[in-house]
Each structure stands twice: as C-alpha cells, then as structure tokens.
Amino acid sequence: MSNIAIIGAGPGGLAAGLILLNQGHQVTIYEKDPRVGGRSKRLTFGPYHFDSGPTFFMYQPILREVFEKANLDFDKHLQLTPLDPLYTLYFNDRILKPSSDINQTKEVFESVYPGAGDDYVKWYQKQTIKFKRVMPILQKPFPNIFHFLRADVLKGAPVLHPFQSVFKYLSKLIHHDDLIHTLSFQAKYLGMASFEAPSVFTILPYLEHMGGLYHVEGGLNQVNETMAKLFVENGGKLHLNTKVDRLWIEKRSVKGIISDQLQQSFDDVVLNADFAYSMLAMTKNKEVKTYHHQKIKSMKYSVSAFMMYVGLDTIFDFDHHNVFFSKSYEGYLKRLMSASSDVSDMSFYMHNPSKIDKTLAPKGHSSLYILVPVPNLDANIDWKKEQETLKKQVYATILEKTGIDITKHIQMEQILTPQEWQDDFNVYKGAVFNLTHGFDQMLHKRPQNKFKQLKHLYLVGGGTHPGSGLPTIYQSAIITSQYLKTKKA
Ligand SMILES: Cc1cc2nc3c(=O)[nH]c(=O)nc-3n(C[C@H](O)[C@H](O)[C@H](O)COP(=O)(O)OP(=O)(O)OC[C@H]3O[C@@H](n4cnc5c(N)ncnc54)[C@H](O)[C@@H]3O)c2cc1C
User: Fold this and answer.
1) Residue 178 CB–ligand 1 contact under 6 Å
2) Cα 198 to averaged position of ligand 1 atoms, centre (Å)
3) Confidence at residue 198, expressed as pLDDT on a 0 to 100 scale
4) Across 209-316, where does the E strand assignment appear?
5) pLDDT in tens, 379-393
C-alpha cells in the first residue's frame, strides 16, 4: 500500500482516486476550488445550474470500466438518458439531424445527394475496423518509440493514415461539404480543426453514431459529484479549498506537496491539474529536464472556448445538442487556427438540457449553454471589448436560423472568456482542450502517465496519454492506477 496525493479533483483525479482506493492505497485529493469537477464542475447562478464544460457524454463503457475497477455499481449510481437525434446541425441551406440508428442517418445523408447514404454506410464500416484496431493502442501506456513495434500498433498502422487529416480522409469518401462537416466537426472536441487533426480522430463521430450520446440527470458535472461522494464514503480524504503551490522535489524525485498551509510528504503524487500550468507554477525552471519552462511555453495548445450561460423564463423546443455552422466554415476554421482576432461569422454549439431535465432551472424556466470555440490567449483579442460583439452575433444567428429571439426571455447571463479559463480554472493560455493532438504531441511524445522526468510522479487528465476528451481522461486514470497497483510504500 502506498500513501498517495492527487492534485486536482477533475474527472481524471476523481477517477484515479476511486480506483486507487480500491487497490488498497491511502489516497488524499487536494482541490483548490470549493467544489469538485474542474473544467466540468457545476456552475450555479441564482436558481440556474449549468455544466461549466463537457456536455457530450459518449462511449460509456470506459466510465463503466472505471466503476468496475473501483468495485462500484455504475447503474446504481448514474442514470443515463439516451439522446435521439444525436444533435441538430444548422448549415446555410439545410438542417440535418443524425441519429445513432445507422438506417435513419443513412436517410439523412441520402437527402443531401443520391448515393450519400451508401457513402455513409461505407464510412461507418471503415470506422468499425479502425476503432477495433485503434482502441487497444490507446488503452495501454506508450512510453517510448519502441512501442511502435508492439503487435497492436503494427496491426493498427494500416488504418491510421498518420499523415492525412480528418478533412482530407473524409473528402475521399463523402462528396458534399455539409456531410463532411457532419462527420468532422468533432475534431473541435480536441480543440483542433478538421483539416489539421490526424485522420485517426474520425473515430470520434463514429463513437457517437455507434454508441450514442447520453444525458446524465443534473448534467455531466453530476458524474464528478457522484465520484467525489463515493471517494469519501470509501475512505478517501478530500480537501477542498486547498491549493497546492509546489511539488516537493529533491534529486529528481517527488517527495510530496507544498502549499501555504502545509508541506506534506507522500510516497507518490498523481497530478491532475492542467499539465502546462502545473509545470510552470509548481516546479522551478529547469527543475524538470525535458519540460523546463521554455519548452512548456513552446508546445502547441488547443483553442479556447467563449462561454455564455443563460437563464431563460421559458423552455424552448431546441434539440438537446445543436451546432450552428458559420456561413464560411472553412474560413472560420482557418481564422480559429491562425489565432486571428477576427471574431465575425463564428460557428458555435448550443446546449438545451432543460427540455428533458427539470432539475436545472425553476419550473417553466431553462438553462441554456452556448460555447463558441475561439483562439486561446495567444491571439491578441481584447475580450472585454469583443464579448458584446460576439454575444450579439450569437443571438442574431439563433434568431436567423430558428426564428426564435431568446433575448426577450433572458433572466440571467454569465460570460466566461479564455482569460477566466486561465485565471480562475488554472488552464494555461485558456487552452481548454489542453495540448494539441498532432502526432508530434501524441503517444510517446505526450507527457507520460508515469512521468519519466521525476520519480514518484504520475499524470492523469487531458494533458497526458491518451488525450483530452472525457473517455481518454478516464482511460488515463486507468493506465496510471495500473502503474500504481502493485506499488508498496
Ligand atoms: C467548455 C468545455 C467543453 C468541453 N466539452 C467536452 C465534451 O463535451 N466532451 C468531452 O469528452 N470533453 C469535453 N471537454 C474536455 C474535458 O473533458 C474537460 O476539460 C475535463 O474537465 C478535463 O478534465 P481533467 O481531469 O483533465 O482536468 P480539469 O477538469 O481541469 O481538473 C483539474 C483540477 O485541478 C484543480 N487544480 C488546478 N490547480 C490546482 C492547484 N494548484 N491545487 C489544487 N488543485 C488544482 C482544478 O480546480 C480542477 O478541479 C470540454 C472542456 C471544456 C472546457
């Protein structure tokens, strides 16, 4: 048994905490906030509740595996409602509603051009093979280049197309921009554009189409709240309002944690706080060989998110998930990736959970969430100035595309910009989807779950292998706990 500290009670930290407890370790979580969840915590403004970040819950087998490894009954603690259609997509000339039923989505595609239904089925079949080959690679640690010689990696290589982007890969299979965007906007879950994300990530839309999307009552934040409750019930120690200031490092070995309240020694430390922020804030420059401060600043980071949390005195009949595509989607993606300060004609996502979940707002009211992917703090955008412009643009687009003027029903409105993601959530550059996922920052090139540069330090969360979405974050907790499973103090 080892005495383990976890820094951060985000989804990665909580999942690792539950598994490590069941392995018999003594586990203490230090969380700087008064509540758990990090980027996916609950936000409450008066009587309205919101998810701060994630709203797309896909590929539930991985969270089930976390519960299994923690010896907990998933179905007893979490109730999921399947969503159909998956989402409503607003393009210039049409609205599309893909489903998790392959035949229904085939018809949706066929409605755009004759033969598109068959193209979709071909895409689906190819992704089924890709998914089976890629998953084993992501489920294991990838600490060095020699892992390319593993049997599962060699088997997966032919379907990986490492030098092809999602967009290029799809353009060969599907022959209409709206349909390509239907199967590629998910690259934004990684904070990347479809023309730069490696084609392996076409498994993201596949996970939605194959496994469906789900709503958790109260929002995805409730997964964290539930895990935190179970963590404490099972003997874990959870210290809220406790910021860790530094890693206690001696001779390239982590001895514990340091905060203004205490210096505490531990056998091992699991880091869940944003990786780049942590290296800059919790280690001295050059204390960590590969990830010295200059290196951290020069790595590639995802886009950020401009958030609008809006309380309404009515419930609109919008779908649960909605995506509004820019008039010129490619133009928008290019501006986004080049950190342009031009925030006109933006694409955005709107979440309307109150239609099926009455726990989020007073009776007859609703909590609406809008996310506009925007450049991170590398872009020279004065958010105090631009936020009004962007807000008005979003409301005007909703009116134009749906005929509904939501501004007449607003009871509360809270804005969150890349600056607050950095200042309040400790997310470096406000890059909410973490390090980008090009092959230069994936697999053995991503900071490793068992941190190579410092003994007794382990990583979980979006900044380590395998990546930054919730399923991969839960996977990182499984990999890290596997390393610690047999550890003795
Ligand atoms: C707007 C938005 C939308 C997203 N949508 C989706 C989605 O739909 N689906 C999906 O799969 N993913 C989504 N993501 C990505 C990802 O799933 C979430 O960001 C997720 O919360 C990241 O989890 P994490 O465990 O890596 O880190 P975090 O959630 O950031 O958790 C880190 C924790 O560390 C704490 N901490 C930081 N500094 C300290 C310190 N010094 N001392 C102690 N504690 C500290 C933080 O308060 C936080 O609780 C979204 C992210 C955002 C921001």
Assistant:
1) no
2) 23
3) 85
4) 213-216, 237-239, 246-250, 253-258, 263-265, 268-271, 304-312
5) 989 999 999 999 999
Q: Which atom of ligand 1 is nearest to the CA of 281?
A: 41
Neighbours of 299 (CB within 10 A): 18
The residue count for the chain: 489
In the predicted model, residues of the chain with pLDDT beneath 50 are none
| Top mutation candidate among 36, 39, 271 for ligand 1, by most atoms within 8 Å of CB | 39
- What is the pLDDT at residue 149? 67
**Residues whose CB is less than 8 angstroms from the CB of residue 375 and which lie 6 or more positions away in sequence, other chains included:** 303, 304, 336, 339, 340, 341, 381, 418
Sequence-distant (6+) residues with CB within 8 A of 389 are: 343
Burial 176-209 (b: 16+ CB within 10 A, else e): ebbbbbbbbbbbbbbbbbbbbbbbbbbbbbbbbb
> Ligand 1 pocket check: which of 55, 207, 245, 272 to mutate, most ligand atoms within 8 Å of Cβ?
272
| Alpha carbon of 272 to ligand 1 centroid (Å) | 9
Cα–Cα dist 369/419, whole Å = 18
Helix H or strand E segment including 110: helix 102-110
**Mutation test residue for ligand 1: of 320, 446, 470, 476, the one with most atoms within 8 Å of CB:** 470
DSSP E strands in 71-183: the ranges are: 80-83, 88-90, 95-96
116-138 vs 203-211: helix axis angle to the nearest 10?
Answer: 100
Q: Name the one residue in this structure whose structure tokens are 């955008």.
A: 381
- pLDDT in the model for residue 409: 98
- pLDDT of amino acid 410: 98
Cα 162–chain centre separation: 22
Please tell me the predicted confidence (pLDDT) of residue 193: 85
Q: Hunting for tokens 């595309």 — which residue is that?
A: 401
Q: Are 395 and 406 in contact (CB under 8 A)?
A: yes
Ligand 1 pocket check for 109: Cβ under 6 Å: no
Whose CA is closest to atom 15 on ligand 1?
Answer: 469
Tokens standing for residue 419: 């600056």
- For residue 29, the CA-to-ligand 1 centroid distance in Å is 15
pLDDT at position 449: 96
Identity (one letter) of the amino acid at 254?
V
Position 233 scores a pLDDT of 98
For ligand 1, atom 49, the nearest C-alpha belongs to 38
Calculate Rg over the CA atoms of the chain. Answer: 22
The domains of the chain, with CATH numbers, are: 3-36+220-299+435-484 (3.50.50.60), 101-206 (no CATH), 303-425 (3.30.519)
Backbone angles phi, psi at 396, to 5 degrees: -65, -40
In ligand 1, the atom with minimum distance to the C-alpha of 463 is 26
